[in-house]
Amino acid sequence: MPHNTMDQQFEGFDFARDVIGDDLIVDGVVYDSSIWTVDGEGGVMRRCEEARDLEATSQDIATEEILRRAAAIASDYAALARNISTGPDLAELLRRHRELLCDAETWDVQPSRIENIIDAALANA
What we know:
By secondary structure, this protein is mainly alpha-helical. It has two domains: 6-46, no CATH class; 49-123. It is 56% helix and 10% strand. The protein has helices spanning 6-9, 15-20, 49-54, 59-82, 90-106, 111-123; strands spanning 24-26, 29-31, 36-38, 44-46. A two-stranded antiparallel sheet has the order 1-2. The protein has a two-stranded antiparallel ribbon with strand order 3-4.
């Protein structure tokens, strides 16, 4: 009876296709493409979590969603300005703001549109 060699056991196996798939390889390191993206400078950067969710939507829907989130954040900033001791958690608010700006950049939504929403809410706080 013939002896199975390692080559026979893995015949048809392609490491790049079967293991790496569509993940990123940068400087010999494999990065999960659902979490990381190329940074344009030869490295990688973490994708914004909510931007991954928006990728399947159109630009108009993405813009509408970003502006809705900006209004929610603006409302929380206004609540915080009215009463810092009982307002929203500042660390969480800043995290949401950072993610919003990242998503806006991903979808080419002008940051000034977000700033205007937040400024209006703070002016009325």
